[in-house]
Amino acid sequence: VNPSHSEAHYRLGKSDVFHFECTACGDCCRGDIDIFLNAQDLWRMLGFTGFSAVRELFDASLVTRHSLKGGGYRPKIKFKTRPAVFCPFLENSISEENELKGNCKLHPTYKPLVCKTAPFGRVIDDTGENQWWFTEPISGCPGCAGLKTNSVSDLIGEHSSDFVLEQRYFEVLDHLQSIYAPISEWDRFHFGIRIDERVEDYIERWKTERPKAS
Ligand code: SF4
Ligand code: SF4
Fold first, then answer.
1. Number of helices followed by number of strands (H, E) in the chain
2. pLDDT in tens, 1-55
3. Best exposed site among 16, 67, 142, 212 by fewest CB in 10 Å?
4. Of residues 93, 121, 87, 119, the one with CA closest to residue 106
5. What is the spatial distance between Cα 47 and Cα 59, in angstroms, rounded to a whole number?
C-alpha cells in the first residue's frame, strides 16, 4: 500500500499476471502506514458508519488531512495509536494456530480502493496515462509467497469505474492546487460529499461551484 514500506515494487503490463494471495494477517493495516482515500472511498465510508456527510468522518477522528507538497491535502484514515498503531477498521483476532490475524471491517463493499486492489495499484504518469504497478503491501508480506495467479487485465476490468472516478477526483485536487486554493476550499469540497448524492454527480456539480483563481 505504501511504497516507502515495500520491497517489491515493479511495473506491470496490461497482459501480465502476478502471483499473490493475501493470508489476512493484517500486518499491512498496522504501523506507520498511510491509507489515502479518494472521494468514492469517503462516500463508501459514510455508508459503513451511518454518517451523512464527510465532515462527520473528520469529526469522529476516522479521517485526517495529509498535507501535500504543492499545497492542500489528501484525506487519509486516522490510525489508532493505542494500545498499538493500527487502522480503526481492522478487527484483530488470534487463529487456532495462535497467529495474529486481521480482518477488514470494510471488506468488501466499503473498502478503500487502495486496500481493495493491493498489491496491485495505479499511478497516473505525467502525460495522464495509467501505469499499473505491483507494490508489496509491507516488507515481508506473506501474501507474496502465495501461488494464486492474478491477471492485470481482470483487475483493471473489475475496478475500471472506480479508477475512472478516482481520476476525476484527482482532477478536482489538481485544480485546487493550481489556483492555490486555501484549505477551507479543500475542506468545502471534501466535507460536501454526502451519502444522498452520487459522487460522480457531486464532482460534476462542484465544477460549477468551485473556486476561481484569484
Ligand atoms: S500483509 Fe500481506 S498477507 Fe498480510 S493482510 Fe496485508 S496483504 Fe494480506
Ligand atoms: S481499511 Fe481495511 S484493509 Fe485498509 S488498512 Fe484499514 S483494515 Fe486494512
1. 7, 9
2. 444 444 699 999 999 999 999 999 999 999 999 999 999 999 999 999 999 999 9
3. 212
4. 87
5. 16
Residue nearest to atom 7 of ligand 1 (CA): 22
Which helix (H) or strand (E) is 18 found in, with range?
Answer: strand 17-19
Prediction pTM value: 0.94
End-to-end CA distance of the chain: 37
Q: Tens of pLDDT along 184-199?
A: 999 999 999 999 999 9
Q: Which ranges of the chain does DSSP label H, i.e. alpha helix?
A: 39-49, 54-59, 113-117, 152-158, 160-178, 183-191, 199-209
CA distances from 167 to 67, 124, 128, 203 (A): 19, 8, 9, 11
Strand partners, 86: 30, 80
Which atom of ligand 1 lies nearest, measured to the CA of 23?
A: 3
CB burial string 172-189: b at 16+ within 10 A, e below: bbebbeeeebeeeebbbb
Residue of 29, 64, 79, 86 with the most ligand 2 atoms within 8 Å of its CB, for mutation: 29
